Amino acid sequence: xxxxxxxxxxxxxxxxxxxxxxxxxxxxxxxxxxxxxxxxxxxxxxxxxxxxxxxxxxxxxxxxxxxxxxxxxxxxxxxxxxxxxxxxxxxxxxxxxxxxxxxxxxxxxxxxxxxxxxxxxxxxxxxxxxxxxxxxxxxxxxxxxxxxxxxxxxxxxxxxxxxxxxxxxxxxxxxxxxxxxxxxxxxxxxxxxxxxxxxxxxxxxxxxxxxxxxxxxxxxxxxxxxxxxxxxxxxxxxxxxxxxxxxxxxxxxxxxxxxxxxxxxxxxxxxxxxxxxxxxxxxxxxxxxxxxxxxxxxxxxxxxxxxxxxxxxxxxxxxxxxxxxxxxxxxxxxxxxxxxxxxxxxxxxxxxxxxxxxxxxxxxxxxxxxxxxxxxxxxxxxxxxxxxxxxxxxxxxxxxxxxxxxxxxx
Length: 410
Ligand code: B12
Ligand code: SF4
Ligand code: SF4
Fold this sequence. Notes:
There is one protein chain. The protein has a domain at 10-87 and 108-178. Helices cover 40% and strands 11% of the residues. By secondary structure, the protein is an alpha+beta fold. A hairpin with a 2-residue loop joins strand 8 (208-210) and strand 9 (213-214). Helix 15 (330-340) packs across helix 16 (345-357). The chain contains 18 helices and 11 strands. A 4-stranded antiparallel β-sheet has the order 1-2-7-4, with helices on both faces. The structure holds cobalamin and iron/sulfur cluster (2 copies). One iron/sulfur cluster (SF4) is lined by residues 157-159, 193, 196-199, 251-254. One iron/sulfur cluster binds next to helix 8 and helix 10.
């Protein structure tokens, strides 16, 4: 075996790597073997068969690969697993004229890049000693949570998130596969959830269908990333979220305690920012007005289906419907109206919902809108429930009702 520069032993090398990792700002570093993870593979295949992965590929695309480290690095003997605490606090929602949308904490800055940079230093160290090493973090090639649990970094919460003892779950996870032998491998930690069910109780869409089991079809975090229309049944539950959802962590007692006590808290650097810092709030008027280039330049770090910024606008239109309320002014009406008059049918449908959710039915009667088949069709499809929220009476349906109200000068 090729040994550590410091001690020449596998134990010494593991210690050395932990010291390097913690020194680079990683919150926890653990080690496990690189054997295939058969039970995780079975879970992936089973959940895919049950449709719980929605349309997602990621680790589900090839469960044999994502549960076998040697499919990526044939000589792998060990895995270094690391957790990095991410943005610790929600900043205050900016007060002002325009509604703002909320970004989940893991996405407020490029915490993955910071994690990968630290893991790359570890990789460099291992390679310098003659070992092979590959960095994986949020990559389809490995199920990060499964290796984190195996490496004794944390336990599987009922939310499916991995929690670190005493620190909760505000962590991104990544690893270095290596041909080095890094012993002793960790023991799996005992469950730390006990009788708690806060995450199941507070998930806004009931997406945690059993302890540790997320039905991605219902999970807002996935719905915001998925292509196509945002399902009508989850639009109200979306609230002001534009990317990611934190409720199963915000309500989690260990994560709350860690927040309160500032455990693992990280501070922004001297310039007041993390790498790629976009903050916790984005002005939705800005999103609706921005060009494709501007949107991708600022928010392109997010997972956006097909890298198509229309999906960011789609989400913003739902946020407007949920939150704009008193903040609707002429400028916002004009912006939403530009989607009603535009040639993108998907965005037009979401703009219709937004207008109905705000009770601003009159916007649907301006110009050619009242006879626009997409608008009329969407009003009909949304049905009496939505019409009943504003000035159109419950029981009025579709284009006919819309036309009548329009004719009445609504
Ligand atoms: C696909 C994906 C998603 C999907 C699906 C999530 C899911 N639960 O599968 C969506 C888009 C919904 C998503 C959302 C989020 N994600 Co995500 N996601 C991934 C990705 C790419 C693959 C995950 C995967 O393979 N899932 C497969 C399923 C089968 O795994 P699982 O849900 O973890 O299920 C395990 C448990 O059920 C456990 N288990 C089995 N039986 C039982 C029984 C009991 C009682 C228990 C408790 C557990 C248990 O075994 C299963 C297999 O390991 C990973 C990155 C990666 N390469 O691994 C990031 C990753 C899991 N996501 C991450 C994050 C941060 C999030 C969000 C918090 C982001 C946000 N704020 O919106 C949410 C959390 C939602 C949630 N409650 O899971 C982090 C998790 C960090 C952590 N501390 O756990 C990861 C690891 C990314 C990273 N590298 O840091 N994600
Ligand atoms: S991320 Fe949100 S929607 Fe998804 S499981 Fe957690 S609380 Fe539920
Ligand atoms: S909310 Fe409770 S059950 Fe859910 S992950 Fe946190 S401690 Fe576990």
